[in-house]
Each structure stands twice: as structure tokens, then as C-alpha cells.
Amino acid sequence: MLFCELLQGTGYAGDLSSDLVAQDLVYDSRIAEPGDVFVCLPGAAADGHAYAKAAYDRGCRLFVAERPLSLPEDAAVALVKNSRAALAVMSRNLFGDPAKELTVIGVTGTKGKTTVTHLIKSVLEAGGVKTGIIGTNGVHFGEIHYKTVNTTPESYEIQKTFREMVKAGCECVCMEVSSQGLMTGRVAGIQFQIGVFTNLSPDHIGPTEHKDFADYMHWKAQLFRQCDLGLVNFDDPHVKEITASATCELIGYGLSEGCAYRGRDIRLVREPGFLGVDFAGETPLGTQGFRLNQPGRFSVYNALVAVAVGQHLGISLPTAARALSKAAIPGRVELVDALPFCTVVLDFAHNEVSMHAILETLREYHPKRLICLFGSVGDRSQLRRAAMAQTAARLCDYCILTSDNPGNEDPMSILSDMEKGMGEAKGRYVTIPDRAAAVKYAVDMAEEGDILLFAGKGHEDYQLIHGQRVPFCERELIRHYAALRLGQPEAEDTVAG
Ligand SMILES: CC(=O)N[C@H]1[C@@H](OP(=O)(O)OP(=O)(O)OC[C@H]2O[C@@H](n3ccc(=O)[nH]c3=O)[C@H](O)[C@@H]2O)O[C@H](CO)[C@@H](O)[C@@H]1O[C@H](C)C(=O)N[C@@H](C)C(=O)N[C@H](CCC(=O)O)C(=O)O
Ligand SMILES: Nc1ncnc2c1ncn2[C@@H]1O[C@H](COP(=O)(O)OP(=O)(O)OP(=O)(O)O)[C@@H](O)[C@H]1O
């Protein structure tokens, strides 16, 4: 593609020859190749402008930057005001604006994004609409699955993935849109047909993320300034602020009166091997009974919005109900069929908000004892650890404190911060730093009627320890130790990592 065509819409300045040909775009000098356009991005840890020469040395001659670069004369530099925004526009140009060939749905909110995108995919595909998803669990479409670095990837990866999805016959893409993704322009220039708001509470506030809650909220609200229809949780205390600047049509879902999509008659169901919820969903096209394979009130919200999206795309209520009765999401309130006399749940809850949500939900099922195994990630706020531990101490009968992803921190110092929270809330607990040993302890202590929650790892198949990614699959370990406890000989073969 001609460099000047690629730059169309960026508002660039620079005296560029009209016959320069660009092969691809790249924003990391370490993977730059001859023919690539190197886009200099100012980052959190470094500034891409400082790596322009490295990209030149690897053969790049075409550059996009926010300020003049000191490079040999054969380099062509297009100057733009905001290089991340320019990357979004150029990526769209490079891949031929694939969003125009898809129905694009964006899901934002503090909790529930991954769950909701998977539920929407289940509902749409049950109605024959081939759908791709992009989010924390990676990219999924058809038989294709790959991981992403970010919940909302960089604009180049998004546009490239959209194009792959179109080629694979997808009609729709449902993606998680993080506040960081909105703030850093990763979804700039995409007009979403539907935007979904799940809920909002303080999170992602810190030196490399948002400066305060107002900033976090401002960027979440951005989705409703670039979509046609907003499906928003009317029961969330922050819905007014999120929608105040909306430019789209707004439709509410929730449990309160006035919601177009409303859940009522909620009944929590716990049966052997099953933990779920029944409810009636009122919609503009009629009322439908639902049984969800996922527990708790928050699952009703997640399901309602999936039904609403489905209805807007022509999926009937019985089809949506059938899909939701079977939908299971790896690592999100996932039931592990391991010990027949109690309920074992694997969940990604890794901060105070989601711990509170999942534990309160599980309490409502009246377990004999609610036992929770969890750790806290390293290299992040110390307050988060104590807060999580306090919440667990208040809501559980017993806690097993262990390691999550300690990262570059000493696991013992993370555990000591968690123990402070435990002590303040007078919780009963044991500390077992090695997570595999802690899993064994939890499995061995389980009794009839207990609910065991393994929190934090969810779908992850590794632990980050001292900068290393160590294989670790909690689901497999639970099954392994359960099989040992039940005297099943095949247990030896089931451990992964
Ligand atoms: C803190 C932050 O926002 N980091 C994001 C950022 O990377 P960065 O700012 O650290 O990049 P940098 O290291 O400062 O480098 C700046 C530029 O120089 C380039 N570079 C650097 C070194 C070199 O040798 N050569 C070179 O060209 C880099 O490729 C980059 O273009 O830009 C990268 C590319 O887009 C992102 O992958 C990366 O996300 C990191 C992994 C991250 O953790 N981000 C968090 C804050 C985030 O975005 N989280 C949300 C989740 C929120 C939720 O769950 O709700 C998300 O959407 O993932
Ligand atoms: N609607 C909801 N409200 C509150 N909590 C929820 C909701 N849906 C799911 N959860 C809880 O939060 C956890 C994380 O859910 P999910 O991964 O879907 O959210 P997310 O927004 O993608 O989160 P993250 O940004 O941490 O990846 C779940 O495992 C569950 O315990």
C-alpha cells in the first residue's frame, strides 16, 4: 500500500514522496522489518521515539512520529499530533476497515466483561450468527484461539483480528473494551453498533493506569460516545454518570422497574453437581423462564444483557434460554466436577470487588462451610491485599492463604499483607505459600455440604514467580488431589504443571 494512502485521515504533516510503498505497520523496534512503517508510541515505561534508530537499523525507512526524528536522510517521517490515534487510523486503512463488514459489540464495566462477551457469543451462535470474541481470555472465533497481551489489544491487533474474523465468515465480533483501551485510543475510530455497560466500582487506579475514579469513569463513558445503542445496567449506582455524555440510544436492563430487560422471580438452585439460578426475564418481546448454569444475582444481570443483545440481532427468547442454560466460561464461576459430596468452584476473582461479589453469592446457597483459597498478585497495591483478605475473612468460614502471581515480589511479604487484613477481621485461616500444596490442603479438608472456592487463577494456566511463567493449572490439580483422596488410581496421570 502507498504510504500516503496508509496515512489518510491522520492529518499528518511532512513532505513525503507520493510513491513510497509500505508493507506493514509496527510499533516495536524489536520486531521491525524492512518495508514496515515504524510508529513511535509514547509509553508508560519507555518512549517509542527513542527506538526509531533501532527500527532504522533493522531496515525501516518509513516513520510516524509526534516530533522530528534524528535519522539518516533516506528516512521519511510523517508527523502527527497523536501517534496512538494515527496508529488506529492507519491500521483501519491497512486492513480495509473490516469493522464495516461486522456487527461490532463492545462491553465495558469493572466486572463481568469476559463473562458477558462469552454469553453473547453463546446466544448469537445458538441463533446461527457466527461470532468472534476478543478479551482477557484471548481471541476466539471458529476453531481459532490465541492469547492477547491486553484485555483490549492495541489498535493494530484489533483491526488485524477483525479482518481475520471477516475472512473466517464471522458476522459479528464482541469485544471487551477496557478503560485503558479507550483512553489510549486502541478502539479509536470504531463505531460500535452496540455498547454494553455492566457495572462500575473503583479499580485500575494507580500511576500507570487512571489518576482517579473520575478519570476511570470518564474513559468508561467514552464507549457510549462511539456506539449506536447502549445497553446499560440501570441498577448500577454510577449509570447516570456513565450515560450523561452518551450520544447513542439507551436501553436499560436490571432488576428494577422501568428496565426494558428485567429479571424477576430469582431462585438460587443448588443440586448435586449444579449451582445455578432460575429467573423470569421480561423483555419487549415477551417473558421467558431461564435456568443459568452460573450462580448468583450478578449472573442474572450478565444473562439479561446477553438476551438483550440477542434480541436486537434477531435471536428468539427460547433460543437464548437454551444457549444460556448450557453456557460455561472457563475460570469464571466454573464448577469443577471433582468431589461428589461438596461443591467446588474455580473463579478469576482477584480483587476486593469480585471477591465480595462471588463470596456473597456463594453464601446465599447456604453451604455447610464456605472455604476460600486465594492469594494476591505482586507488584500491585498493598491495600488491595488487606482489603481482599478482610472481605474473605468476613464472608468465609475458613480461608487458605497462598500465592497468586507474586511476580517480582517476595511471596511471603504479600502473604504478610494479607494476614494483616485477616487479623483485623478476625478470620480463621492457614497460610500455605506453595499453591499446589494449598490446593491439596483444601481438597483434603472438604466435608459434605461445603462449598470450596478457588479464587484468583480462573482460566490462567501459569503462575508468575520471580519473572518466570511457571505452568500451573488449578483445575487439573484439584482433580488430581480429589482423585487421590477418593482413591482413584488414574490420579497420577492428571496433573498438568
Ligand atoms: C502500562 C501500559 O499501559 N502499558 C501498555 C503499553 O506498553 P508500554 O507503555 O509499557 O510500552 P513501553 O514499554 O513504555 O514502550 C513504549 C513504546 O516503545 C516501544 N519499544 C520499547 C522497547 C524497545 O526496545 N523498542 C520499542 O520499540 C514499545 O513497543 C512501545 O510501542 O502499550 C502496550 C502496547 O499497546 C500495551 O501492551 C501495554 O499494556 C500493558 C501490558 C498493561 O498491563 N496495560 C494495562 C494498564 C492495561 O491496558 N490493562 C487493560 C485491562 C483493564 C481491565 O481489565 O479492565 C487492558 O486492556 O489490558
Ligand atoms: N456482573 C457482575 N458483577 C459483579 N461481579 C461479577 C459479574 N460478573 C462476574 N463477576 C465476578 O467477577 C469475576 C470476574 O468476571 P469477568 O472476568 O467476567 O469480569 P471482567 O470485567 O472481565 O474482569 P477483569 O477486568 O478482572 O478481567 C467473575 O469471576 C465473578 O466472580
UniProtKB/TrEMBL annotation:
Pathway: Cell wall biogenesis; peptidoglycan biosynthesis. The keyword Cell cycle applies. Carboxylation is probably crucial for Mg(2+) binding and, consequently, for the gamma-phosphate positioning of ATP. UDP-N-acetyl-alpha-D-muramoyl-L-alanyl-D-glutamate binds at S29, N150, T151, T152, S178, R186. Its EC number is 6.3.2.-. Keywords: ATP-binding, Cell cycle, Cell division, Cell shape, Cell wall biogenesis/degradation, Cytoplasm, Ligase, Magnesium, Nucleotide-binding, Peptidoglycan synthesis. ATP binds at G109, T110, K111, G112, K113, T114, T115. This is UDP-N-acetylmuramyl-tripeptide synthetase. It comes from Solibaculum intestinale.
